[in-house]
Amino acid sequence: MKNLIFLFFIFVFFKTNYSQNTFLIWIPSPTDEISVTDVIENNDGNFIFASNKRYFEPYYHLNAYLLKVNPEGEIIGDYEIELTDTNTGIDNLLIDKDQNIIAIGRTYTSTSDSGRSQLWFLKFDVNFNLIIDKKYSSGYTSVPQSAKFDSDSNIIVTGILFHDPNEISETDDGFVCKFSQVGDSLLFKQLIINQNQTCWEILEKKDSKEFFLFGDNYDDISWGQIIKIDSVFNILSIDSIPEKISLYYIARWLTDTTFILTGKKPNLLNPGPQDDDLGVLVLDTAFNIIYKNQFGQINKIDYPGYLHNLDFIDTSNIYYGGTADMVIGYYFQSDTSWYIINKFDSKLNLKWQKYYGGDAYYKLWSVKATSDGGCLLLGTRYNYLNHADMRDIYIIKLDENGNLTSINNPEIKVKEIIVYPNPVTESIYLQTALKQSMDFEFYDITGKKVLQKKNVDSKSVINIKHLHSGMYFYRITDKQRLIDSGKIIIDKSN
Q1: CB 154 within 8 A of CB 181
Q2: How far is CA 381 from the centre of its chain?
Q3: Which architecture, in CATH terms, is 7-418?
Q4: 410 pLDDT more than 80
Q5: Where are the domains of the chain?
């Protein structure tokens, strides 16, 4: 194992019949950790994470990186795939019946200006010894988004074919393909319907060998579409996804006749700045809405995790996460953001909602439910004050209540309520899943209480138009405890 600089915090909480570990793994390194894409949990309770690194010296190149962590959060193995003049990346992980690791990714020669990435099938044993290494060319730049076992134990992969290897074009296509567990290519289908299609997710139907695909731009009238395909991937029908849900789809069966679907949900009624939420639907097989919900802040961009944003082991405890205060565009932001994670039941009734971070720019890629009832949050952290264009791996293991507890206090904020915007001009909003009545108090820098509002909740708007510019402090309490406190800048210069 190569030497790593990392911080981890561990706490073991015992219950009657099982224990729940929580930990935080933060790996600052001299490379740019582009993403933490996926994780699997094996029979020993160990976790295998997939990440992708970017190097600038001695030449620009990308390396796939695998990390093995025990249930207590200790790094017990790692493997960086470094090939001469070749870029490598892993997007999805699966585990077979023999506990071998199957990785689906992409690779291309970095010295070629016209290089187009190939689909990449890898299989490792538990110690990262390579068993299978196969590559497949589609003639385009192949970017896998989802990989799942089907009912025949083959592997179905969906993704996007970029016609121009250097940028998204107006003629990109979705694709779906099938591999055996030894990496043999069994079927490949390029989905050419319109222009600039995507293909994020696939769900095998319970009663047949048909599938539902979830993508965008397969028609000209709706935001996202459900594409029904047969067993050899011919398109049978195209239907609109309700509620203008689009992008970053994850779909899972809840029952034999209903499934849950996530994606970005725009708030089109808001006349202000771009406002996106984490959207979620429960649909029947005719795509009628059974339940719906959305999570996010007013006048803010809150995005679902990019690759695997929802997971559950039992349908009464579903985890759904993303990035709160997302900034669209440039990856290296001086703004701050949060991981957001929601836990709800199969009727989308929210049990709790928590935020992690807020002191740097965090981006959540994936969420994984764990066998002990908790979940993992996978993503990156960037702090422009520390280094330029270098993101760090940032992994959080939570218990079933969203707690991250350790012997030493981890250097991360955990909040059940977000007070925003900050700085503020006229109105303060609260974002929380807490149901109890709360009191909001506002103090100036002398400690004088200048504002108090009772019985506030997530729908409350707190008017501060009468207050002057400057620094203020707030406290949010209920009858039993201090829930949150902090400082806010009022800026009326604009």
Answers
A1: yes
A2: 13
A3: 7 Propeller (2.130)
A4: no
A5: 7-418, 427-490
